[in-house]
Amino acid sequence: MDVLTTKISSKNQLTLPKRARQALGIGAGDSLLIVIEGSRVYLEPRPASWTDYMEGLGADMWASLGGGEAYLEQERASWQTPPVS
Questions:
Q1: Among 1, 12, 25, 54, which residue is least crowded by beta carbons within 10 Å?
Q2: Domain check: are 9 and 26 in the same one?
Q3: For residue 64, what are the domain limits?
Q4: Are the C-beta atoms of residues 16 and 5 closer than 8 Å to each other?
Q5: Is the residue at 22 inside a domain?
Q6: Residue 78, exposed/middle/buried by CB under 10 A (0-12, 13-18, 19+)?
Q7: What is the dihedral of CA 20, 23, 25, 29, to 10 degrees?
Q8: Whether the Cβ atoms of residue 41 and residue 35 lie closer than 8 Å to each other
Q9: pLDDT 10s digits, 3-26
Q10: Nearest Cα to 23, choosing from 50, 46, 54, 2?
Q11: Rg (CA), the chain
């Protein structure tokens, strides 16, 4: 693990050291994602495809519901239940 330091300018800007840019595979003009988890901040290169980046998010939630198909089947079944009078 490399630990690098940088300073925040009076305009609240910072310069990423060369090793950090190389590790992220980014250069001038590239966009970054800033991910905040509690008191930690992570930098990631902006994905070329948001679809690929988002794939698999929420998988644990869907698994706890029996899978997407099972959940959808339950929902559709609830629509067909006659209303309670």
A1: 1
A2: yes
A3: 48-80
A4: no
A5: yes
A6: exposed
A7: -10
A8: yes
A9: 999 999 999 999 999 999 999 999
A10: 2
A11: 22
